[in-house]
Every structure is written in C-alpha cells, then in structure tokens.
Amino acid sequence: MGCKVGPAARAAATRRPGRPLQRTGFPRARKLYSPAMAKVCHVCKKGPSFGNTRSHSMVATRRRFDPNLQRVRIDDNGTPRRVYVCTRCLKAGKVAKAK
Question: Taking the alpha carbons of 29, 33, 38, 43 in that order, is the dihedral positive or negative?
Fold first, then answer.
C-alpha cells in the first residue's frame, strides 16, 4: 500500500530544489514596452509560410519562408506610421509613403 501524504507535502517533494514556489493570485507586473511587430505585410497580410529543406539524402527538415518585408513610413490618415510592407505592395504602389 502507498504512503498517505498530504497535497502540500507532495507538491514540496516534486518541486525542484532552489526554485521558488510559483504564487497564484498575485497580479503580474505589466510590461512597459509594446510587443514586437509581427512579420506580416500591413497591406496584403502576407506572412511566413512553412515547408521542408531537403538534403542530398532527401531527409526533410522543417524551415520557414519569410516574405520580403521592408519597414517603411506610411501616411495613415494624416499621421506617419512605421509598418512592414512587402516589396510586391511597394512596387504596385498600394501604400503612400509619408514625407
């Protein structure tokens, strides 16, 4: 038969030594900076696609095909903003650059 141990003792036994217990119920500190911009085109919403790299032995390794995005200043309703725009949209003139 097993040994009868309370939940607190069981949690302390499974916890890694040297690491503090994670407290719940306390609000997390808010980040003061904005999150990084996604690597997605602002105009056409083109993002990364995924596929395989094939070696000589045809072993498949996952890889990522990123679109050709440029960080440009655009005129967004009179206010200039820096956004990522793919080169196809830039070449087609789908965005108005800020002056």
Answer: positive
